[in-house]
Amino acid sequence: MLALTLDHIFLQQHAENKADALALLADILVKENLTTDDYLQGLLDRENQSTTYLGQGIAIPHGTQNSQDAILNTGVRIAHFPKGVDWGNDNTVYLAVAIATKSDEHLQVLQLLTSALNKEVKDDIRQAKTADDILAILNAMPESLVLHENLIQTGVKASDLDELAYHGYQLLKAQNLVSAGFLTNLSTKKAIFLQPNVWAVLGDTAVNQPAVAIVKNSQVIDFNQQKLQTLVLIANHSSLDQQKLQQLLDVLFQSDLTTDDRRKIAGQIQAKTIPDWQKQTVVVPNQHGLHARPATQLVNMVKGLSGEIKVAVDGVNFVSAKSLTNLLALGANYGQTLTFIAEPNSESEQALPKVIRAVKQGLGETVEPIVQSNAIDATSQSEIGENLTWVDPFVMPNAKPKGIGASQGVAVGQAVVITPKTYAYQQTSNDNQAEKTKLQQAIEQVKQSLEKLIKTAQKKEIAEIFTAHLALLDDPKLLSDVNQKIENNFTAPYAWHHCIEQTAKVQESLNNPLLAERAMDLRDVGDKVLALLCGENLAELPTDSYILVKHDLMPSDVARLDSRYVAGILTAVGGASSHSAIVARALGIPAVVGAGAQVLQVDRGTQILLNGLTGEFVINPKQPQIEHAIALQQSQQQFAKLALDTAQQPAITLDKHHIEVAVNIGDLKHAKDAVTKGAEGVGLLRTEFVFMKHNTMPDVQTQILDYKKVFEAMADRPVVVRTLDVGGDKPLPYLVINHEENPFLGVRGVRLTLRRPDIFKEQLTALVQASQGKDLRIMFPMIARLEEWQKACTILDDVLANNPHDKLQVGMMIEVPSAAIMAEKFAPYVDFFSIGTNDLTQYTLAIDRGHPVLSAEADGLHPSVLRLIDNTVKYAHKHGKWVGVCGELGADTEAIPVLLGLGVDELSVSLNQIPLVKMQIRNLSYQSCQSLATQALACDTATSVRALSQDFLSHHQQQGSLYEQ
Ligand code: PEP
Ligand code: MG
């Protein structure tokens, strides 16, 4: 920052004319060691290009681009000419401020000097006796026209001048330079052209202090049949007249600016740092990122505080932390760094440490604290683009209808079909005030009904959703966007709908599916207000038992439902993790989502049967189908009860073949319950949890404590421990891994631990020490090549040399096709294989296992995967080794007989599946499973394998399908 001090002011100077004055100034600059003699030519050239007279007897002589080399040090010196110097055009200069800057600092000098433009200071300057007098005039703060880097923002995403003005307003308001009425009274229609792409807009209402904000859009946009990119938004006082202002703008944006000057201004415009604001950072500890619930907590915490508080992901593009939509649009993921800044001398500034603490503690969610997160690259938010509409290329014309089972249970009832409502409204209005009042009233009414719903909510999850809705209606950014549109003569419904849609689309375009789903909440609450604005009431629901059929389920739809009357829910779109699915589950209402648009064609009153477990549904079911479905549900319930009652019995087939059923553990809490649920051991201990729950790498002793808990809970049962399987898509916040284009094909699992033998050895040491006398089975994840297996074993041998273990088996996971294909080569060395069908399927079919569109096609019953399993089992058994399956396929009812038939020795499944899997095995014949497997291996598609298995099960078990009657 350039500083002006008393000894920079040279009083009682005299010059005959402008050239003399410039020579005098150049002389001062040289004596002060700021420039060489050559700078004088620069001052003269600059004056010839255009005058540096600013107004009120002040000029700001400075050099040209060509004279930059003559600058030795940056600085400003002021010469006081009490008698005045003729500066041309009838202007007399009493104060010449000579500037020597190589960078863009002269804008700061301008800021200081613009104070003079605000007042009649010419006489005061002329009569000044001391340097103090001059400084006092220049520093006359209350009336100074503020322009500094906090008032400059680039990369703004606005679609028109109004939106750009809104951003400028936010900057001014954040500095308390203007108040609420400023924007409402701004007339963007009267924009002043400054230079190509640069326009100025003046506002003079609710101005606390004259100021200039400069906002630059990311793209050039059309305005008045011309182009616009940069807006100079001026908060004008009556004392700042147009002419003086124009002079300032001329200096800032004069058309004859040199390229370099333009660059300097552009450079200044790009400066986005906010150095004077308190700044603190915190890492997002929430597993699902800063989604609606924690974000709502944050908004509620800061919205009442005076002063602005802003937040950005990884320090770029700050948004107000008081705006829920802004927070959600940040798309902050787990492990990303949030930077908070707070306005100086405000309550927000005082509250900053508290805010940081609250974020660290998860904003109402249970989280593990994180201290450092340099392992994760900022997730780039996808550019907003057109949404692609996918068609499902594999829907068979006569396929039985099926959706996604979102909430278990069988339901039957009359359809109540609610199709999306279209609202009719005028687009423009002449009465802005009336529109604003209408909007206010509609919002108030919706808020009241939400408050009532929060109070009467049957479940905590539902109350939380409505609290988030309430916060959306209080969102200052949303409200100000809508008001701005109304100001531009749009009607309240048009403005409201436009802004809701715009915000929802931004959220949908983010990488994070959870945040994208929150767009639904926004539309939900948006529709309620829109309905009121259009004089519509929300559809009344019947009070007798029915199946609700909708395009998509809004959370509030579910919450408004009375579970006494709603037998089930069927939607055209949606996923199992949507809010509505969560709420449906919480209310215990059977639900099938994503059933396709054809369900909306059903007439009200048509009977529907659905199974929320399998996703099946039948329109107009026949009576026997209904009876069968009800019987099926009852038998499922009985089956589950019986399974639990007999959970301790071994899983021995009808023809006496024993399959070991073990538990997958990814959380210590589950270890104890596993034994009660019938686990014969741990088939997969996902040790990541030990590492994830700490915020730095846990040392050997810390790991031992956790591992011991599992070994103790399992008593003498075998425990298969998988060594650390992080990296790629599962980052450890404190472990630095460079950004990878294809994380699933990157440094994952054993590839990572082989590259960090220190971590690997510590984990192996902890495992061996924690399990003395116990049945320890260690396996390495993601082995693809024999060299990796050998290397991992060498490291283990090193550890065992100092920590012997007498009950140890060493195996590997089969998750990569190369390992399955080469099982013959691995089998002699391993003690066992454990097949990770989740990854094996993903790598075999080349489908990302979490892909939002494709993952349903990644079926582990595909014959290609089965052949790999077959190959693995064949060579393992040849060498007398055992094989387990620890992927999700191991608990899939239709897959179990096939896996048994392929000769798998152990199934490791999640806690609640254990009794069911054991019970199913006890009802199967091993021999029949073997012939089923032989047929499955010969199938062409996963669908035909499933059909085969369903057929098999319908003959061998009492677990039918809705379609069977
Ligand atoms: C698997 O890939 O099937 C597996 C069990 O490992 P994870 O799901 O932990 O990757
Ligand atoms: Mg895996």
From TrEMBL:
One of its GO terms (cellular component) is cytoplasm. One of its GO terms (molecular function) is metal ion binding. Residues 425-463 form a coiled coil. Residues 277-366 form the HPr domain. InterPro entries: HPr-like, HPr-like_sf, PEP-util_enz_mobile_dom, PEP-utilizing_PTS_enzyme, PEP_util_AS, PEP_util_C, PEP_util_CS, Phosphohistidine_dom_sf. It is found in: Cytoplasm. The keyword Ribosomal protein does not apply. It catalyses: L-histidyl-[protein] + phosphoenolpyruvate = N(pros)-phospho-L-histidyl-[protein] + pyruvate. Its EC number is 2.7.3.9. Keywords: Coiled coil, Cytoplasm, Kinase, Magnesium, Metal-binding, Phosphoprotein, Phosphotransferase system, Pyruvate, Sugar transport, Transferase, Transport. One of its GO terms (biological process) is phosphoenolpyruvate-dependent sugar phosphotransferase system. Its cofactor is Mg(2+). Its main location: cytoplasm. Residues 2-141 form the PTS EIIA type-2 domain. Belongs to the PEP-utilizing enzyme family. NCBIfam families: PTS_HPr_family, PTS_I_fam. PANTHER family: PHOSPHOENOLPYRUVATE-PROTEIN PHOSPHOTRANSFERASE. This is phosphoenolpyruvate--protein phosphotransferase.
